[in-house]
TrEMBL record:
The gene is glsA. Belongs to the glutaminase family. Homotetramer. This is Glutaminase. Pfam families: Glutaminase (PF04960). GO terms for biological process: glutamate biosynthetic process; L-glutamine catabolic process. Substrate binds at residues 68, 120, 165, 172, 197, 249, 267. InterPro entries: Beta-lactam/transpept-like (IPR012338), Glutaminase (IPR015868). Keywords: Acetylation, Hydrolase.
């Protein structure tokens, strides 16, 4: 066991309780009604290293849905299905500085493709690229890929969250129709694309799953436990770059300055982060700040990254 890991083990419990105080200023997401049931005061973190080391502190028994965190991994699968050229014909590479569900920039860019794959519009375009004959087959391919990365063959869609989102997703529906008008989803059935998108957002995980998925990214696409290359290194490089520039929505700049690690958040309060070459990290804290990121989760990651000088910059 290295010194850093030992120190982490000793200090994490106090850091977590300090960060937990921040949950009081956050709000659990409620625009997807089912998400409003999450415990606002919860905070948990799991770290995995590449030698079977696991550190888990706080409310790590909590299960939650991936939401926007899934977008990183559907991007990887779409890249594996179509290569860079195929994917970047449908989605751009630039941060927006706007909310994750914004429509503002959809009309402004030539040729009308979404700015990046981590905003909703971009992720919906990416969902349309996943290979499969039916929405069920596409969803199953996505779930199988996530199971492999997370090292758990039991990952499933949380049906209640999926139903709750599909019934209330007026904004995402309008984004998808906008994309169809722009030719990005020209040949697609909107409801079928949205079914795939809502279902991958509704896959249920724990902090341990996030940490395992992040660890594969930290090791450039290789599962350090099995030694298998699960994702080509180049695609992981692309995903990590998007995580830095757009992973924390329109708070990505501040997060890069304060934490300095590739990360992706979701409105369920999850954050997946990684220390390149070293650790995969999963955090959950359902109380969100106004940008839609876990308020206590961001604070905890900032505390740890600062203490160990983990910033990549
Ligand atoms: N499923 C959610 C949505 O489309 C994901 C958004 C998020 O986590 N920011 O609104």
């Amino acid at each position: 066991m290295n010194g850093e890991w030992k120190e982490l083990e000793g200090r994490l419990p106090a850091w977590l309780e300090e960060s937990r105080k921040r949950t009081a200023s956050g709000k659990v997401a409620s625009y997807i009604p089912e998400l409003a049931n999450a415990p606002g005061e919860a905070l948990g973190i799991t770290l995995c290293d590449g030698h079977n080391g696991v550190l888990t502190v706080g409310d790590c028994g909590l299960h939650f849905t991936l939401q926007s965190i899934s977008k990183v991994f559907t991007l990887l699968l779409a890249l594996m299905d179509h290569g860079e050229e195929g994917v970047f014909a449908k989605v751009g590479m630039e941060p927006t500085g706007d909310n994750f569900n914004s429509m503002l920039k959809l009309e402004l860019v030539e040729p009308g493709i979404p700015f990046n794959p981590l905003i909703n519009a971009g992720a919906i375009a990416v969902s349309s690229l996943i290979k499969g004959a039916t929405p069920a087959e596409k969803t199953e391919r996505i779930a199988a890929f996530f199971r492999e990365l997370a090292g758990d063959s039991s990952l499933q869609v949380n049906e209640a969250v999926y139903q709750s989102e599909t019934k209330t997703a007026h904004r995402n529906r309008s984004l998808a129709y906008f994309l169809k008008a722009n030719g990005v989803l020209e040949h697609d059935d909107i409801e079928e694309v949205l079914e795939v998108y809502f279902k991958h957002c509704s896959i249920e995980v724990s902090c341990m799953h996030l940490a395992r998925m992040a660890l594969v990214l930290a090791y450039d696409g290789k599962d350090p436990q099995s030694g298998r290359q699960l994702v080509p290194r180049r695609y992981v490089q692309i995903a990590k770059t998007f995580m830095i520039t757009c992973g924390m929505y329109n708070e990505s700049g501040a997060f890069a300055i304060r934490v300095g690690l590739p990360a992706k958040s979701g409105v369920s309060g999850g954050i997946l982060a990684l220390v390149p070459g070293k650790y995969g990290i999963g955090v959950v804290g359902p109380a969100l700040n106004p940008k839609g990121n876990s308020t206590a989760g961001v604070h905890l990651l900032e505390t740890i990254s600062t203490a160990f000088d983990w910033s990549m910059f």
